[in-house]
Structure to design on (159 residues):
């Protein structure tokens, strides 16, 4: 399974002044952005940034063609990092996936091993995708607020 054939939703640059054109394509892993870890994608979230990219707004994607999807969860197929083993459940978000490099709207994704987070015990692939980049960002915000001394005694917090 070194170079599987799979389906991906790929954006192509639109004509001058037109939004990108998306379509399903059959690809192989060697057509993906560079990386040393291949993941069989189980789920990918749909985020505001993904909608902007599809609409060609905000200059989100600057290099085409591009597979969108700024987060994904799945299982490791192979990795250059021995800490990531085949079959291991993982999540990837941030680091420009779906924007600067290919993202999660495909059956497979190839990323750098240092972008890959093993799923914590008790969180499944679907739950990780539901939380996605937005949930992770909200959790980090709360973590750093608490780290800086915020407590429930300070009142309500909106994230």
């Amino acid at each position: 399974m070194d170079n599987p054939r799979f389906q991906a939703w790929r954006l192509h640059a639109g004509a001058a002044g037109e939004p990108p054109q998306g379509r399903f394509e059959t690809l192989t892993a060697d057509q993906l952005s560079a990386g040393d870890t291949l993941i069989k994608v189980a789920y990918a979230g749909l985020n505001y940034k993904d909608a902007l990219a599809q609409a060609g707004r905000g200059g989100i994607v600057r290099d085409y063609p591009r597979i969108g999807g700024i987060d994904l969860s799945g299982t490791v197929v192979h990795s250059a990092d021995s800490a990531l083993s085949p079959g291991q459940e993982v999540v990837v978000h941030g680091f420009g996936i779906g924007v600067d490099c290919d993202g999660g709207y495909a059956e497979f994704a190839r990323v750098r091993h240092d972008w890959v987070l093993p799923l914590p015990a008790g969180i499944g692939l679907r739950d990780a995708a539901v939380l996605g980049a937005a949930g992770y960002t909200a959790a980090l915000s709360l973590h750093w607020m608490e780290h800086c001394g915020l407590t429930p005694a300070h009142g309500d917090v909106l994230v």
Notes: The two ends are 42 Å apart (CA to CA). DSSP finds two helices and eight strands in the chain. The chain has a mean pLDDT of 91. Strands lie at 5-12, 21-28, 37-43, 66-67, 71-79, 89-93, 108-111, 117-118.
